[in-house]
């Protein structure tokens, strides 16, 4: 079942991005200017995102949505660590406080919540964090990069097709509605990755990491409200602290403006 969903996601993603590039008439131009370094870089990125997809799909099938949310919680920490260590990026004081809150929350969650599967969130966190870093290194446009990654994964999928006689079957229970949802997986996969790639080329990697804390919070809501997965007290406290850290980051410009205006008024009154 895992191979089924992973295979269809790869094939439909490739079909979607190929169609978009063909309409834009960028497909042939991409092959003409493609270099070996770009292929290797996006090949590594493809392996990371495929592993990430596989872990995420497995977690969704087995009702481990909280673990996948925690994985995407760890991923920004990897991205921020790369930004600080490799690119010597600096965090503002408020972002540093937010990062400290998140780090302590993750540590608290990992050590205190024994009902979560550590394999899921470690694999998801490390692969997505490193994927963020590799997307920062590419010179290809978001869609061109996604095409190369999808093509690499499709080529890797070809040997697996022999297990299914050249065709990955759909479940017998699938009707028209389910098939339409499956076809939509191409757009659902490509659009967020394209937007992510677009942002990765324009934002500092530490900022990318902090913004990614939005996903774990939405995963938490989906896990509890839709999947009905029970959340321990440790999990609730950790996610609440992370939400507070996110609020600090989101409202940082407002707080800076407020503090700055107060500083101006105070200095003016002293004069």
What features would you describe in this structure?
- By secondary structure, the protein is an all-alpha fold.
- It has one domain.
- It has 13 helices and no strands.
- It has helices at 2-24, 27-33, 36-61, 65-85, 93-112, 118-137, 142-161, 176-183, 185-200, 205-211, 214-226, 233-250, 252-270.
- The radius of gyration is 21 Å and the shape is globular.
- The N and C termini lie far apart (73 Å).
- The model is unreliable at 264-271 (pLDDT under 50).
Question: Strand-residue fraction?
Answer: under 5%
Structural class: mainly alpha
Give the low-pLDDT segments: 264-271
What is the count of β-strands?
0
What form results from the Cα inertia axes?
Answer: globular
Number of helices: 13
Main pleated sheet: none
Order of helices and strands: HHHHHHHHHHHHH
Round the mean pLDDT to the nearest integer and report it. 77
Instruction: Give the C-alpha Rg.
Output: 21 Å
Share of helix, binned: over 70%
Q: Roughly how many Å apart are the termini?
A: 73 Å
Number of domains: 1
How does the SSE layout of this entry go?
Layout lengths: L1 H23 L2 H7 L2 H26 L3 H21 L7 H20 L5 H20 L4 H20 L14 H8 L1 H16 L4 H7 L2 H13 L6 H18 L1 H19 L1
Structure described in brief:
The protein is an all-alpha fold and 271 residues long.
């Amino acid at each position: 079942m895992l191979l089924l969903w992973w295979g269809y996601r790869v094939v439909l993603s490739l079909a979607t991005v190929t169609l978009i590039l063909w309409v834009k008439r960028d497909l042939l131009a991409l092959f003409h200017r493609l270099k070996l370094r770009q292929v290797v870089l996006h090949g590594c990125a493809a392996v990371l995102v495929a592993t990430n997809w596989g872990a995420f799909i497995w977690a969704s099938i087995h009702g481990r949505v909280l673990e996948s949310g925690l994985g995407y919680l760890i991923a920004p920490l990897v991205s921020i660590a790369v930004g600080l260590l490799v690119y010597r990026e600096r965090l503002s004081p408020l972002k540093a406080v937010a990062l400290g809150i998140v780090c302590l929350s993750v540590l608290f969650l990992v050590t205190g919540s024994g009902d979560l599967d550590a394999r899921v969130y470690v694999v998801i966190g490390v692969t997505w964090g490193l994927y963020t870093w590799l997307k920062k290194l590419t010179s290809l446009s978001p869609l061109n990069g996604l095409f190369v990654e999808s093509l690499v994964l499709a080529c890797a999928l070809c040997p697996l097709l022999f297990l299914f006689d050249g065709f990955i079957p759909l479940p017998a229970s699938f009707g028209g509605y389910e098939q339409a949802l499956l076809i939509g997986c191409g757009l659902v996969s490509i659009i967020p990755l394209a937007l992510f790639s677009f942002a990765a080329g324009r934002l500092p990697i530490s900022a990318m990491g902090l913004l990614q804390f939005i996903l774990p919070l939405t995963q938490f809501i989906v896990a509890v409200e839709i999947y009905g997965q029970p959340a321990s007290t440790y999990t609730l406290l950790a996610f609440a602290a992370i939400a507070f850290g996110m609020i600090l980051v989101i409202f940082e410009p407002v707080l800076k403006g407020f503090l700055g205006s107060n500083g101006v008024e105070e200095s003016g009154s002293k004069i």
